Amino acid sequence: MLTSPGILPKASPWSKRARIAVLLSLLAVLPASAATGVLVEAPRRIVGIELFPAVPVPYLRARYELAGVDLIVYYTEAGLPLPEDAATVQCGTRVLRVLEDPDLQVRVLEHGGETLIFAWDTDVAVDLCRILPSFLADFDFFRDALPGDRGSWLPATIE
């Protein structure tokens, strides 16, 4: 707003500090970006998962809500016997294996000698390639910061 040198702009009934407080309180209650996934089921240890019924290895399983979609993430230190003819999906420099399942879309990523499995309902679309870099950056950060606490390696949010 331009004013003449001798004329002050009309004073607002709201002080600058009050406007900032209102803005911060609105940001606190508004949901994060629709693209932000939030951990809604903390990682829990399980043995064997339905995707690999013949492989009774220990996993950690967590559930995220991402724009109204449930995204299940499994983590295991074990290598998994993936089908030789499994399709692949390229996400940047990473190659994910696609597993066939009638109810779920499943992507498997071998990452640093460990395995991460991402699964979601077949009726919805998830752009895993968009969220994967930030997920892995947080996962690697927590793995390095908390080497003995595998349950804390899965991040609380993904974007």
Radius of gyration: 22 Å
Mean pLDDT, rounded to whole units? 75
Strands, count: 8
For the largest sheet, list the strands in their spatial order.
Answer: 4-5-6-7-3-2-1-8
Shape: globular
SSE string: HEEEEEEEHE
Proportion of helical residues: 10-25%
Strand content: 35-45%
Sheet with the most strands, sense and barrel status: 8 strands, antiparallel
Contiguous uncertain segments of 5+ residues? 14-34
Span of the ends, CA to CA: 37 Å
Structure class: alpha+beta
Q: Would you kindly provide a written description of the structure presented here, covering whatever features stand out?
A:
By secondary structure, this protein is of the alpha+beta class. Helix content is 20%, strand content 36%. It has 2 helices and 8 strands. The chain has helices at residues 16-29, 128-145; strands at residues 37-47, 58-66, 69-76, 87-91, 94-99, 104-111, 114-121, 157-158. The chain has an 8-stranded antiparallel β-sheet. β2 and β3 form a beta hairpin. The longest helix is centred in the last third of the chain and has 18 residues, at 128-145. It starts with 15 loop residues before the first helix and ends with a strand. The model is unreliable at 14-34 (pLDDT under 50).
